[in-house]
Amino acid sequence: MVSVSVRYATERAGAHTHQVNENEPALRVTNLTTHFNTQDGVVHAVNGVSFDLKQGEFLGVVGESGSGKSVTMMSLLRLIPMPPGIIVDGEALFDDQDLLSVDLDVLRKIRGGRIGFIFQDPMTSLNPVLTVGFQLLESLRIHQEGSSAELRAKAAELLDMVGIPDAKQRLKSYPYELSGGMRQRVMIAVALACSPEVLIADEPTTALDVTIQAQIIQIVKDLRDLGRAVIWITHDLGVVAGLADRVLVMYGGEIVEEALVDDLYSLPQHPYTQGLLGSLPRLDQKGQDLVNIKGQPPNLYSPPTSCSFAPRCPYVIDRCTQENPKLLPISDSHRVACWWDTYEDKARDAN
Question: Do 288 and 295 touch, CB atoms closer than 8 A?
């Protein structure tokens, strides 16, 4: 199993001069709203998303394709194509700076330097006509100081850190000469180049075989053990169960449930979360049928004026089709957006 070099990460962490207040969240997002203007109309991709990322926390973000997971996180760093994308509203505070309104020159220093991003598809994220070494050194030159020889040595050490053999020679390789797993490791090396305080991983194990997935997951787990805050975007609830401290469940561009990982798996409150967990094979539930969430994902061309899950929900009531529920607390660490059952009473009791 691959292991991150603690020595390297610690040295790089020492390069940061920013003082961290452990009582303050690493990232605070409020009412993030992102639209895409298309020929068919406005796509309401992200609708008023709010959450905190704590210092050193591993936050899982789950949901089916099109739920807004990736667009939410890419919007935070203004990585969505604009146009057609537009960030309509919201605030994303990082070290007392709003990432959504800060000057682009300042944001570029934060991106890749203090906040790393591992993209979903390394083949489209890496430039096919530039060597791995060139692309890795580009990030180091922007955010680090040192001679060409020193930066090249750091680049080789990064490749070695993520488990790429013969790292010095691999710096000369082009992305097409590497396997899918190797390319993903290169993307992780680029994201870790400046030892970021926050790492966002957008389904980094998609399309990789099980062995490589386990190695990639171990790399990120080791990083988390060094005190970095991690956001892991995935549709795989099994991976999240073994990694995350807390989980956000997204549907229709909104957070429908937020809970500590143990609470989410033992007592899921939202019908969508229950459906997701019910679709997972479990050793302790042999002989039970898996849950099938019937229906289709919501039409995001219309703004959410009712519960977006209502057409697929087995517990739908009249209010679900008339009013969109807010994400409200039912305990100190558990929030749900649902009108079903005794939700309102729970929220009232929590307040």
Answer: no
